[in-house]
Amino acid sequence: MTITGLTNGTTYSIKLRAVNDAGDGTASEAVSVTTPMTTPDAPTSLVATAGDGQVSVAFTAPTSDGGAAISNYKYQLDDGAWTAFDPAQTSSPVTITGLTNGTSYSIKLRAVNDAGDGTASEAVSVLLGSPASAFEEAKEEITAVIVADATRSLSSTVATNQRMTRAARGRFIASRGRGSSDGAGFAGQNDVPLDISGTASANLMSISTKGSVFGQTGNIEGTKRRLVFGDYDLQVDTETGSTTATLSGRVAWEEMISQETMLGYYVGGEMGRSAISGAFEGEQTNLSLIAGGYVVHALTDTVFADGFVSVSAGRNTLQMADEVLSLEGEYVTQTLTAGGSLTGVYDYGHYELRPELAFSVGTTRIGTISFEGEAYGLTESGLSLDARTITTSTLTLRPEVIYALEDESLTASRSHLSFAPRLLCERTQSTTTTDRCGRGAEIGVNSSSEDGLSSASFRVMMDRVGASNRTSYEAKLQFRF
Question: What's the pTM?
Fold first, then answer.
């Protein structure tokens, strides 16, 4: 007879007795038996992690140790000879040293006990300590750096287009206020040699400065004009320390195509530089060409609609490195932005109500980026990742009230106080999609000199969007020469 289900390498004391219809018989004398030991089963679920000249292999221990404790493991590289770990390693993970960086290995493990070598595991492959392996490990961080920089650049482009269109709307509204009987046309001061303005703002996540240099010349009738813009935008991410500086220049042409509509179009260039900090250190430069247009239309005497659209193409050069990996790459981006607003202007003498509903959308296609990488003393080209497309969009409802501080008439007062509650929703799409809505308010004060050539303003903006609170402060100085 055979007794099954026993454990190898275990000593058993065995007795037997017979059974008939009357019941169990008398037990025999005990006999001592030791089952033979066998070799262990195979390790399973191998996971290899590359290092500098070595690899760590995690695994699940054999289901059966064969009846004897596992005393060591052996490894095999590329179907070669089996090598025992010295000193012995008896648990997961095990580390294989003395390997060559930049080399791919096929690795198997087997357990060893007093009965001998166990069954071999399935093979696991690993590329050891190469630029490609380091790049693969850091791909998520690299993508995050590129996407963050492109998002800041896209925000800067959208903001510049919004400022341009908002200024055009202001010129259009001012011209209608003057009327055509004084011969001023759509601009009372059709020639401006130089106009300089600048702002600075800060919140818990970023510090930003913006500004522009502006000049214009026009015809005597005031129906056409040429404008020259120079904008700068500096943004600092206080979480990572990364900075993005953008300088752009544009030439625009405006024309009154009817009494109710003004049309503008422009061409220009943009140059940006980012200092990257955080998981990676480095810098990125960008050179772009941009073209676009805008329109302002009077729906009624007090309601105005405006919109803009722009396209641009940029060439980017990127250098970045961490403690292991150094990368250099070049890539081309294409950007499209569009936006518009519906604005009312209601004059009540001592104050003015300006409700505004505005939207903007911007998208930058980054696509596949190729890099040359250096790591572990090796250089490799052909490294690549797909950063895809970044899209940002905003919708804002902003009713603003402007009060005169020095005169009964708002137009006659040189100092004003403004208050604007607002509702806003934002969406950002890149590697993930984020939707946030919230509410906030702005309060500001501004004052201009008696000759009208200089002005200063200060504004506080507070928002709660999603789960985050934002508080920004903006100071602006403007000089006209």
Answer: 0.70
Contact 222, 258 (CB under 8 A): no
3-state secondary structure of 139: helix
Read off the DSSP letter of residue 219. -
Q: Beta strands 433-448 and 206-218: pairing type?
A: unpaired
Amino acid at the residue 442: E
pLDDT digits (tens, 9 = 90+) for 261-317: 999 999 998 888 888 887 888 898 989 999 999 999 999 989 999 999 999 999 999
Report pLDDT digits (tens) over 424-436.
999 988 878 889 9
SS (H, E, C) 207-218: EEEEEEEEEEEE
Measure the CA–CA gap between 343 and 298, rounded to whole angstroms: 10
* Spatial distance between the Cα atoms of 327 and 142, rounded to a whole number of angstroms: 10
Is the Cβ–Cβ distance between 111 and 62 less than 8 Å?
yes
| Residue ranges of E strands in 322-367 | 326-344, 346-347, 351-365
Residue 321 CB neighbour total at 10 angstroms: 16
Chain length of the chain: 481
SS3 content of the chain, % helix, strand, coil (to 5): 10, 60, 30
